[in-house]
Amino acid sequence: MAFTGFPEAALDFYDDLEIDNSKVFWDEHKDTYRSAVAEPMGELTDELAGEFGAAKIFRPYRDVRFSKDKTPYKTHQGAFVAVGPATGYYVQIGAPGVRVGAGFYEASAERLAALRSAIDNAIHGAELEQLVRKYSRTGWEIGGDALKTAPRGWSPDHPRIELLRHKSLTITRDYGFDEVIHSAALVREVRKDWRVATPLIDWVCRHG
């Protein structure tokens, strides 16, 4: 089926789940999750797959084995299109609305070393720096895990030390409760933003 938007019931579901994150609540509302969240997310990502690739729609269950927080369910539904190791495009819906993102979400030691070497390079590093500056200027939030200090072997005075500190690097944009999330036009908006994010993905895939 074609994507027609996330219904209000999807936002209500996650509002309630944040209050009562229990198996009892889930079992009583799993049909709402299926019809208001999971199925529309599948339809949305299916319409984007021709250009960006097939998405992995994440399971709603949390891995609580090593966590102090034992609540069993995620309070958002995410989907990820991988184009490289832990690198690609992201979309999610939760109580705060809809969010899109892109970037690399983790890296092995070897890959991180390669990316930092590219950041150190005058040409490649300046290219990434310009991309990140442009995203920030146009309303994207720059995120990812970053060291508080300079990585081992790098000078704190490096001109791109802020980028070198990143262990992952992402950009995100919130649609929140904008009416577009309840309509078929959300496909167009996500497609547009993922296209804007593609130069970052390409840079990471070239150098990592």
TrEMBL record:
InterPro entries: CHP02453 (IPR012808), UCP028451 (IPR015996). It comes from Gordonia mangrovi. Pfam families: DUF2461. This is TIGR02453 family protein.
